[in-house]
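EI: anyone free to look at a 106-residue chain?
SC: sure, send it
EI:
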Amino acid sequence: MELRYVGFDQTQNTRNYHFERMAKGEPAVRLDISADLARFLEHRIRIQDGPSLCATKLASDLENSLSGQHQLTNADLAAHVTARATAEALRIESRSRRGHRPARTE
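SC: here you go
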């Protein structure tokens, strides 16, 4: 199964992202997931991250056989922020380790 982002529409603060689920030998199925843009601001998440966050959420919903309306929740966005902060901390730690080489003795 593959998800393909095909666009969005917006009504006030709610953006509805549109995807197509592609499975070999089956017709494409349209899936929609909504996101409250005010929550993006609250968590300081770039709007450009919306499609990838929604694709991840949809894939998870489909793996867990959740059907019906799909929504990017506050918990999903908080988890993204936590993962982003953890990755940044690991990157900084890795960089600082490379900078501290043992002194050469001759």
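EI: Residues 2-99 form one domain.
SC: 👍
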